[in-house]
Amino acid sequence: MSDRYFQHTFPNGLTLLAEKMAGVQSAAMTLLVNAGVSTDPVDRCGSATVLSDLVLRGAGARDSRQLTDYLDSLGLQRSSSAGVHHSRFGCAALATKVMTGLATYADIVRRPHLPEAGFDAARDLALQGLAGLDDEPRQKLLIKLREWHFPSPYGRNTMGRKEDLEKLTIDLMKVDHTDRYQPHGAILAVAGNIDFATLKSEVEKYFGDWSGRPTEPVKVMPPPGRTHHEDQQSEQTHIGLAYPSIPETSDDYYVVRMATEVLSGGMSGRLFTEIREKRALVYSVWAGYTALKDQGSIMAYAGTSNDRAQATLDCLLSEIHRLSDGVTQPELDRAKIGLKASTIMQGESTSSRCGSIAHDFFVRGRIRTLDEIKNAIDAVTLDRVNDFLKKHLPGNFTIVTVGPKPLNLPT
Amino acid sequence: MSDRYFQHTFPNGLTLLAEKMAGVQSAAMTLLVNAGVSTDPVDRCGSATVLSDLVLRGAGARDSRQLTDYLDSLGLQRSSSAGVHHSRFGCAALATKVMTGLATYADIVRRPHLPEAGFDAARDLALQGLAGLDDEPRQKLLIKLREWHFPSPYGRNTMGRKEDLEKLTIDLMKVDHTDRYQPHGAILAVAGNIDFATLKSEVEKYFGDWSGRPTEPVKVMPPPGRTHHEDQQSEQTHIGLAYPSIPETSDDYYVVRMATEVLSGGMSGRLFTEIREKRALVYSVWAGYTALKDQGSIMAYAGTSNDRAQATLDCLLSEIHRLSDGVTQPELDRAKIGLKASTIMQGESTSSRCGSIAHDFFVRGRIRTLDEIKNAIDAVTLDRVNDFLKKHLPGNFTIVTVGPKPLNLPT
């Protein structure tokens, strides 16, 4: 670990990660607590979502309005969301202001007011978000694809479920906050113009005496099936496809990433050139590697007009299968250069880096340095990629469509 | 102009802008040519859109596939689009690779092959993009709002018009390329880890002997009306609203920006707190300042369920009118801090900076330094804001809705 990185786990189980970046005045922070949709209680899917809104409606000495005004008065550009594994609170601003804001983020996760009036509004907004999906068929498709591909509760919609949201009460939210907003396993990552010693002592001051361990009432169940069609009257059909791959911690991780880049990285990616540029079958098509903590997958999407939908699905599957025949040296070279370029670009963004080191720690238990990533990319050879592709044939597909009629699926 | 900025206009009318950024390895480039949808010939709306795709399908010594492969082999993360005033070509990567790519971007704008086969695919994709809008009612609303608010041709949909796209031919594209891809008025901006002298000599080498002046066959016409309802069967109603403001070059520019921040900046913005957080009327609501070269506007959007749509529109209008009563000192302070924080964050991104200096030159004829922006923000006082708001009452609204039924509009 060079002077650039810092990692420390406090006795209460909270891990602080930091990255010092040259030439920036800003800093960005990400705080992950173990309240994701996958740990929502069985019949309360969406609890984490509502909670991640509700904790911001007053905390510590400040009511809802005062809290919002105060954080805006620091110039913090903020975001918050509930994901599969965590609820995430993020901010970015001048580094000194991010440091000042730490005390208030401690209030938010440790001492939220959870007001009853705020609860009604927060749940209403969650229900409206769900209802709005009817106007977003592409987003709906990607949500359905996760539901049908990943085992439950990992495939749950992070926006929650209507029936469950309707069952929530402010008292249930309070119990849920106590159960899951706990330091053990939580991650606080900061990247930018920071001093490690100061950061550590500030975090210790505000989070050090927090204590507890989240409950994890998760029972894993297989997804409902492998294929699904969602009827939607439209001129467009949206197609989603997924198949299992290796986990992110595998030694072959960059081998798979590189193969996926050949399929869909840059503009010379096969899906883009074959399906979009040459055949003009689709306006949008992509494939990418995506992972839960222990499970990797390749997911692909195409959106097209109804009359082109069957040809698009056939072509998409055909390109995925063709990958098993191997990639060429020039394709691999481009994939490497593309991935390294995007690593360099992300290395210059405080928000991107604090998100990356937090993710690294969650998946791998440690920060990967930018040099380590660069070396891992360099170490991928053509033989390794083609050997891997030959041994790991794509299969066991999940296929989901949203549109006016189902397509013919491969048997 | 400090050591950080560089500006030079070549004899052919191409302007080179550059910003040197400390602590980065990357650079980003933006190239603007005067082929925007507003200069599309009268009955060929969408010509710039198809052309911005077609010029990438082979240029100089490389055919379509070779060109794509080559640019990917430099690791260039690329984007291109047709806007109102320009077609824009952008890339970002390691600074040395961006420098290497300059020669190829000269091929693209000066010596594209414009192949007939590529034309069919490029036009098909443009038509598909348009058809896909039916599944994107929010995007459709924002397009319709511009059409009904700005004078034609400035309000044209940058994706083109179906009837016009169908009339295009490869021969018309060739004529259009000759007419509009010209150096006079074009802007090339680079930000990042660069050396001004080297950059200038490279640009001179590849673009210096380019010559010509684009034709601008624009006849300005008023928009078709002030209110419009687009019928779409859905559970959601999308509401767009716009009214005239001062141009970006006005001394009061930051006065208006600050007032708009009070309305809709950060999370303490009035629209967010009143309409979303307190009343939970909408999932998404915002307002912002937007400008063509000579004309500024305030635009606002809200998306909500049909049963809340009328209340949302009424509430949105009421908050906009309430702004005329003035803002408070704490509101102004937060607005200033928020705008300065986002200026600092953008100042650390090469892509953001090269886009900003190109925009500055187009609108103002010169680069604004980050210090100049910061000072202009600081110079805004509460009296100036409230005096401005009293003298410039909102009115002459354009109101557009997309949903199952029209709303009651103010008379």
Based on CA atoms alone, the radius of gyration of chain A comes out at 22 Å
Oligomer: homodimer
**Helix/strand class of chain A:** alpha+beta
From the spread of the alpha carbons, the general shape of chain A counts as globular
Largest sheet of chain A: 6 strands, mixed
Helix tally of chain A? Answer: 15
How confident overall, as mean pLDDT of chain A?
95
Strand content of chain A: 15-25%
- Terminal CA distance of chain A reads 50 Å
Q: What's the β-strand tally of chain A? A: 13
Of all protein chain pairs, which has the greatest interface, and how many residues does each chain bring to it? A-B, 70 and 69 residues
Give the fraction of residues assigned to helices of chain A. Answer: 40-55%
Order of helices and strands of chain A: EEEHEEHEEHHHHHEHEEHHEEHHHHHE
pLDDT < 50 runs, ≥5 residues of chain A: none
In which order are the strands of the major sheet of chain A placed? 1-2-8-3-7-6
Annotate the secondary structure layout.
Two copies of one chain form a homodimer.
Chain A: E1 5-9, E2 15-20, E3 26-33, H1 47-54, E4 58-59, E5 62-63, H2 64-73, E6 77-82, E7 87-94, H3 95-110, H4 116-132, H5 137-149, H6 162-167, H7 170-180, E8 187-192, H8 196-207, E9 227-231, E10 236-245, H9 253-264, H10 270-278, E11 284-291, E12 296-305, H11 306-322, H12 329-346, H13 350-364, H14 370-378, H15 382-391, E13 398-403
Parallel strand pairs in A: 2-8, 9-13
Antiparallel strand pairs in A: 1-2, 3-7, 3-8, 4-5, 6-7, 10-12, 10-13, 11-12
Helix pairs in contact in A: 1-4, 3-8, 9-12, 9-15, 10-11, 12-14
